[in-house]
Each structure stands twice: as structure tokens, then as C-alpha cells.
């Protein structure tokens, strides 16, 4: 009887260890996905800043071309 009980407990422990390992692997995958999404968001932010800077430079250049005084151009910013 003790041998049977020990065997059942050992199998249960092995099953629990396997489940823990699966959960750990899942957590690692989720962390990796979150890191990748973070990098993508940072790239999006950099791109948005670049586009905003380009727009501002374009507006500044347009103001210069149209002959607006520097104070007038800068007031729009």
C-alpha cells in the first residue's frame, strides 16, 4: 500500500513540476512578446516625432519662402 501511495505521490509531483515548467515557459513567452511590443511602440514614437519635426521644418521653410518675418513664423509654433 505504501509503495502504491508513494508511486501516486511521485506521479502527482512530476505532473505538478511539468505544469510549473509549462507556466514558466508561458511567462517567458509573454515577457518576450511584451518586450517586442515595447520596441515597436518606441519605434512608432520615434517615427511620429520625426514626422512632426519634418512638418514643423516644412512650415518654417514655407514661412521663409513667403517672406514672413521670423517672429511671425515662430508665433505659429
Structure description:
- The chain contains two helices and no strands.
- With 77 residues, the protein is an all-alpha fold.
- The protein has one domain.
- The longest helix is centred in the middle third of the chain and has 64 residues.
- It is rod-shaped and about 100 Å long.
- The termini are far apart.
- The mean pLDDT is 89.
**Quaternary organization:** single chain
- Give the mean pLDDT: 89
DSSP helix fraction: over 70%
By secondary-structure content and strand pairing, the structural class works out as mainly alpha
Tally the helices: 2
Strand percentage, roughly? under 5%
Shape: rod-shaped
Major sheet summary line? none
Count of the separate structural domains:
1
- The beta-strand count equals 0
Q: Over the alpha carbons, how many angstroms does the gyration radius reach?
A: 31 Å
Question: Which residues form runs of ≥5 with pLDDT under 50?
Answer: none
Order of helices and strands: HH
End-to-end Cα distance, whole Å, is 84 Å
Amino acid at each position: 500500500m505504501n509503495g502504491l501511495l508513494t508511486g501516486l505521490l511521485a506521479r502527482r509531483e512530476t505532473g505538478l513540476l511539468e505544469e510549473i515548467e509549462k507556466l514558466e515557459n508561458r511567462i517567458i513567452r509573454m515577457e518576450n512578446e511584451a518586450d517586442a511590443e515595447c520596441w515597436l511602440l518606441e519605434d512608432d514614437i520615434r517615427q511620429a516625432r520625426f514626422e512632426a519635426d519634418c512638418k514643423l521644418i516644412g512650415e518654417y521653410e514655407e514661412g521663409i519662402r513667403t517672406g514672413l518675418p521670423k517672429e511671425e513664423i515662430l508665433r505659429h509654433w
